[in-house]
């Protein structure tokens, strides 16, 4: 079936360049009425629709819609799905009171399988087709996640959380442990179909120096794998890291010294980074995940996206839902909150900036921009169809927009899962609203 040739018809948007670094109007590719031809799970061609171009093809027509590259979520925790919206704490207390108990339940593989199934269904319903996902410290939580992702044929990055201190005993790796299990999971899953592995030390406070260094060695042993962790999220966390690693020059320096920076390293948050740390991210090719709904929910602070993307030393940047501190699966909601955070920093995140971050920007952060993040020939056919008539209010409000940029901005301000009419994964319809 994957080899079958078929096509989608509708308006498209896609980015060919980074609007933070080039004129946004040049960075955007837009066809008001396009034919996207799909073959063997890839995009074979994209161009203006015509009867001749569509001849002989089975065409699914989406009028009153916008076809986008599938959204990329660069930071999310699937085991926290059962605890979204847990009340009343900042980061460190929230971890102890809600997160660790929720993650302990993943000792039960049946629970892991059930949550993985629900999580991936929600992700696709929100239009997200690739995510960098934290599992728990249980190898079975990774097994369950990749098994479900492989079944759906989604391109996912995931890994076993590494922790050997400062967390409940039932979640800790034994001294010297966790690495062999991670290595075995890499062997089983990295590069199997569309699955990719991320070495995943939770964050500096929950790993010993020895475990961080072992994680760095494991990562280097397996080229093409990822490294994901948290960085500079809350003031109390940063003070704690300073206490635990008194000789490190900065929070990021803790990771650098353990060999945890470089291409395919993805750091969640990075809210309170110094100029030196931004430079170090740029120089090493490390990426940041901006998680606005989470940062507002936990009261962690206001990420400076335009500082991160400064043209003389731009840092690779994607958006993250960071569920379950994040409060929505929807990249449209995340984009809308990223705009508000930028407002509070006295900067202005346009719709083109935001849609870039949720698509090509995320793909570049993950070094996957040759495969996903664009509607372009040769790219994997992961697509989302946004319904411009999804709600009466959206339909009504879009009627007052004068151009595409205004329409996109209204979509990210009013939009959520209801706007996602269909999601295609490697050319196949994987989720459909009401379907
Ligand atoms: N820092 C360490 N672990 C976590 C987590 O699970 N969520 C968030 N938001 N920050 C963290
Ligand atoms: Zn996180």
From TrEMBL:
<dbReference type="InterPro" id="IPR032466">
    <property type="entry name" value="Metal_Hydrolase"/>
</dbReference>
<keyword id="KW-0479">Metal-binding</keyword>
<dbReference type="GO" id="GO:0008892">
    <property type="term" value="F:guanine deaminase activity"/>
</dbReference>
<dbReference type="GO" id="GO:0005829">
    <property type="term" value="C:cytosol"/>
</dbReference>
<dbReference type="InterPro" id="IPR006680">
    <property type="entry name" value="Amidohydro-rel"/>
</dbReference>
<keyword id="KW-0862">Zinc</keyword>
<keyword id="KW-0378">Hydrolase</keyword>
<dbReference type="InterPro" id="IPR014311">
    <property type="entry name" value="Guanine_deaminase"/>
</dbReference>
<feature type="domain" description="Amidohydrolase-related">
    <location>
        <begin position="67"/>
        <end position="427"/>
    </location>
</feature>
<dbReference type="GO" id="GO:0006147">
    <property type="term" value="P:guanine catabolic process"/>
</dbReference>
<comment type="function">
    <text>Catalyzes the hydrolytic deamination of guanine, producing xanthine and ammonia.</text>
</comment>
<dbReference type="InterPro" id="IPR051607">
    <property type="entry name" value="Metallo-dep_hydrolases"/>
</dbReference>
<dbReference type="InterPro" id="IPR011059">
    <property type="entry name" value="Metal-dep_hydrolase_composite"/>
</dbReference>
<dbReference type="Pfam" id="PF01979">
    <property type="entry name" value="Amidohydro_1"/>
</dbReference>
<comment type="similarity">
    <text>Belongs to the metallo-dependent hydrolases superfamily. ATZ/TRZ family.</text>
</comment>
<comment type="pathway">
    <text>Purine metabolism; guanine degradation; xanthine from guanine: step 1/1.</text>
</comment>
<protein>
    <recommendedName>
        <fullName>Guanine deaminase</fullName>
        <ecNumber>3.5.4.3</ecNumber>
    </recommendedName>
</protein>
<dbReference type="GO" id="GO:0008270">
    <property type="term" value="F:zinc ion binding"/>
</dbReference>
